[in-house]
UniProtKB/TrEMBL annotation:
PANTHER family: GAMMA-D-GLUTAMYL-L-LYSINE DIPEPTIDYL-PEPTIDASE, MUREIN DD-ENDOPEPTIDASE MEPH-RELATED. This is NlpC/P60 domain-containing protein. GO terms for biological process: proteolysis. Gene3D superfamilies: endopeptidase domain like (from Nostoc punctiforme) (3.90.1720.10). It comes from Flexivirga oryzae. Residues 128-249 form the NlpC/P60 domain. GO terms for molecular function: cysteine-type peptidase activity. Keywords: Hydrolase, Protease, Thiol protease. Belongs to the peptidase C40 family.
Amino acid sequence: MMIDAEAAQLAIVNVGVTGLWNAPGSPRPVDGPIVADRPDHARWLADLDAQPTLEEGRLGLYERFDSELLEGEPVLVGGEEEAGWTRVTAPWQPYDGSDTGYPGYVRTAHLRLVDDAPVGRLPDCGVAPTVDNFLTEARRHIGLGYLWGGISPAGLDCSGLVHYALRRLGVIFARDGGDQYRACDDVPVDEARPGDLYFFAYPGKTIHHVGIVTGPRRILHSPSTGEVVVEEDMPAHRQETLTVIGRIRQLQ
């Protein structure tokens, strides 16, 4: 259920990083540090990495943890659905054609109600949204560990890398790969250029991966296998699932 933007209250995130969860019951015991009233994002990541398998740690967030919210980020509040949790949408993270942004649940203690917030614009970052600046921002994260749902410089997933790099340039851009493709202009494969986006899908399936073009069949991305952000010649299994290429309209 989406939130009525006209009727919703406004709030901003009052902690460094918090989670946008699928449901109040989604967090596991290992996720305790990030859902505490005073969240500890670094300890949470360390606890995830201490699990016996990736599936019990970072990759186990699949279908539980949808995204992150960063300090100062505005949200539209849809009411407290369960003790300690608030249903929100995140307008800085466009989602599925919604006017209000990415939906989910966030810890109530991580929000502060406000009378006004910059819902439709990001703070002035002082950096022009150019292709070169986009690539520079994305490359800053090479070597960073993969985090399902991550959009902070402490951990990123594939679409989070694209989203966060553009956010750093003052561009509000979709959060998920499928929505990111719909926000782009289509580009023929032989006309791809640095700064475009490669999108990957299995036959008959939706987009499951996105990466940034840095050269002919060369990709900067955050693989979804627990690896780190890497720039490399496109591996064979990626070439086999390359489906479409998009050009980001907001980049100069």
